[in-house]
Amino acid sequence: NSSADVPAGTGLGSSSAFTVGLLNLCNAYLGRYESAATLAARACEIEIDRLGEPIGKQDQFGCALGGLNFIEFHTDDSVTYEAVPLTLAMRQRMERNLVMFYLGGTRSASDILRQQSKDIGEKADVTDNLRHMAQLARDLRRDVIGDVDAIGHYLHENWVRKKELNGNISNGLIDDAYARALAAGATGGKLLGAGASGFLLIYAPDEARERTIAALSEFTPYDVRYEPNGTTIIYSD
Predict the structure, then answer these.
(1) What is the pTM (predicted TM-score) of this model?
(2) Is the distance from CB of 37 to CB of 69 less than 8 angstroms?
(3) Minimal CA–CA distance to 210: which of 1, 53, 20?
């Protein structure tokens, strides 16, 4: 729906995509091969251990692996993952029904995530909420195989719970845009990234997609496409 460039640093995992891509590029330059999982783990080491960023590992593994995956992050720091098997028709329906809106603005993801990490250690209700969100991911993996439209419901419940983690995750602009999307027939969505600004991802099945775009006409919409391959060298001289 738009040919505009996607703004950088607005909740699309840009820093992790850069790190994973740079590692892949360096390996290619040196004639060395590392698996996608190894690239993701090395990117986590750089961003989290060496640079001290208060982030998780989902962006690094998502960028490295590609496709639609169920990823589990264990307490011993290990990571396991498996592909979620969707047919071509299901993937195409998912793409048609997903739309992103750029709401504008910038924010410090580190500040939001540091506060969230602090709350996890101090507030039992935050920990319980995170456990419930993890269970939502398990339930979505089960249900989406039978009905791809289940994504909308799970996105909605996850977003409602995510807002409870930190008062800075959402704001009036985001809440108003989300409410208008639901009123237009969308079944769910969430803000991408740590919160407060960036992209609003909406699941709007069938005719609700165009109604949602019309309802949020002041924001730039973007199509969403399934990327099966993850980090890839596309040109080698």
Answers:
(1) 0.84
(2) no
(3) 1
